[in-house]
Amino acid sequence: MKINRIISSLFIVGTLASCAPSITVKYDYDPKVNVRQFSTFRIEADRQRNADPIVGSNLNQRRIADALEQSLQAHGYKPVQQGEADLIVRFFTDSRDRQQIQSNNMYSPYSWWYGGMGNNVYSRQYEENRVVVNVLDARTNDIVWQGWATGQLNTRNKERDRDQAFRETVTSIMKNFPESAGQDYGAAR
């Protein structure tokens, strides 16, 4: 009877670990915009929306900006420090507290035989973070592409791991951005 409880406890722990939120990436774009016209960019942090003291810190904003710059240059776009850019890449982060509740009803018609039914409810609190990248046409100030990632970014303890977590998150967002400047969005797919 005790072995069944041990096995079921291990199963519950494994199930909870597998249900932990991962990073989810999505994107949207304006299909009417001809991306062929864009070749330069400027990166800006949205200072009004980066209110979270941890994820929106200057340190994490630099991490995100550096990862965005690397990704955009890899796609063929050129950074502009001074002067007019074709694209303004504006990003922000936010976070909110979440709670995951899971019930494990281990009912069996024979449960009375080996020690009763087990209906265990488990609760896990965590912080969900979001990184949003808005790409705007600098002339019209309209969003032409938007990508975002949602999940747990701030769970790593080591600084190097945080660098890697933010770099991987931004890279996964930007992999859906058109492949290179001078190509039509549909052709870059």
Order of helices and strands: HEEHEEEEHH
Q: Percent helix among the residues?
A: 25-40%
Classify the beta-strand content into a percent band: 25-35%
- Gap from first CA to last CA: 57 Å
Give structural attributes:
elongated; single chain; disordered C terminus; 6 strands; 189 residues; 4 helices; six-stranded mixed sheet; alpha/beta; Double Stranded RNA Binding Domain
Write the layout of secondary structure elements.
Layout: H1 2-18, E1 24-29, E2 40-45, H2 58-74, E3 78-79, E4 87-105, E5 119-137, E6 142-151, H3 159-174, H4 185-188
Parallel strand pairs: 2-3, 2-4
Antiparallel strand pairs: 1-6, 4-5, 5-6
Describe this protein's structure:
This protein has 189 residues and is of the alpha/beta class. The chain has one domain (2-188): 2-Layer Sandwich (Double Stranded RNA Binding Domain), CATH 3.30.160.670. It contains four helices and six strands, in the order αββαββββαα. It has helices at 2-18, 58-74, 159-174, 185-188; strands at 24-29, 40-45, 78-79, 87-105, 119-137, 142-151. Strands 1-6-5-4-2-3 form a six-stranded mixed beta sheet, covered by helices on one side. The longest helix has 17 residues, at 2-18. The radius of gyration is 22 Å and the shape is elongated.
Summarize this entry quickly.
The protein has 189 residues and is of the alpha/beta class.
